[in-house]
Amino acid sequence: MPYYALDNLNALHGPVQLQPIPGVGMHIPAGVVSLPQLLPAPAAGKAWVWDGAKAVQIEDNRGLAYRTADGAEVDYQEALGPLPSDLTRTPRPSADHAWANGGWAFSSDLQNANRQAQSQALCNQVDQAADIARRAVAGDPLRAVEYDRAASEAQAFAASDYLGEVPPMVAAWAIGGRTAQQAADDILRETAQYNGALVQLRATRLQAKELIRASINAGNIEHAQDIAAETIASIEAAVAGIGNNASA
What is the span of the domain harbouring residue 153? Predict the structure, then answer.
């Protein structure tokens, strides 16, 4: 008489070997049942289950399944029998497919929403890189005010042919052997680089976002991702050694 072990779903596993207990004889522990004969292999997609009186075959959908809400993979082990209505064995063909009428169906509305989300995410990455670069150039808001004031005083001093009293923001940089004229010219040169970097940042950022949107709308997701990555690298390179990254 073969013996089979039961799991938490009452599925039968075995046969298993039981050893008689000395002085007691054969004892069938909890979670084990005896059957009149060996069970054949279950049919495909089914499992042998103990129904309380006999072994029966029922549908076995344990294993990899997919949520109909979003296509996410799940390891379904909760029960035997048909899959719950919110799960399917069929993988989602793409993020642009939605579950409808018992199957995955392409949705243009979902595709548009996905493209908009992808476009926004990539554009946000470019914006964030530009924000970081801008802060690297300008520093905190008070540092930006300092740069603007230094540039204004240097420009006024240069306009006066470097004559008269040296403005305090220019005098502050007339150190280390620099003359007041050299300090003013240095500030103006740095200001030109600073302003040029800000213009370049803006132009690069806006152009990249337009290209990203166009690529996404055309379905070229990888190309849009490449544009974002290349733009971020370009932004980082554009501000190296300028403004707050420089010594003045």
Answer: 110-245
